[in-house]
Inverse folding.
């Protein structure tokens, strides 16, 4: 028997975007306040899980055709590459660089290599979490 889940599916679509944009906020706020790539990745994964609960795994895989194993690999390469790039400049491993730039719309903004490292952590966390959840969800 197929149930009519119109209300939960409509609500999940709206709440997904609210959770996702909150995860983006947590990601960017993490450099100066608690948060960052790890927590932002977990919140993003929870938003995707909400879609899986409201719809089903096959529908979400059709909507978001992401290979999460590649996402994990990309995140690891980005995080380790950002951490190791300072060694080529003769600095210790994990030395981060920053400077202030005058960007057209944002004005004077500081750009950090730590944000690239956090992006790598974010991709790893989302990829690993979703791989685990999809693996469990595909078992019968």
């Amino acid at each position: 028997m197929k149930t009519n889940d119109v209300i939960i599916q409509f609500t999940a679509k709206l709440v997904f975007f609210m959770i996702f944009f909150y995860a983006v906020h947590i990601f960017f706020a993490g450099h100066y306040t608690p948060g960052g790539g790890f927590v932002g990745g977990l919140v993003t994964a929870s938003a995707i899980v909400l879609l899986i609960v409201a719809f089903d795994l096959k529908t979400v895989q059709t909507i978001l055709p992401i290979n999460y194993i590649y996402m994990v690999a990309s995140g690891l390469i980005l995080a380790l590459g950002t951490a190791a790039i300072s060694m080529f400049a003769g600095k210790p491993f994990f030395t981060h660089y920053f400077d202030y730039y005058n960007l057209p719309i944002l004005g004077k903004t500081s750009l950090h290599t730590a944000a690239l490292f956090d992006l790598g952590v974010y991709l790893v966390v989302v990829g690993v979490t979703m791989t685990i959840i999809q693996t469990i969800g595909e078992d019968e």
Summary: The beta strands are 98-103, 107-112. The longest strand covers residues 98-103. The chain has a mean pLDDT of 90. The radius of gyration is 18 Å.
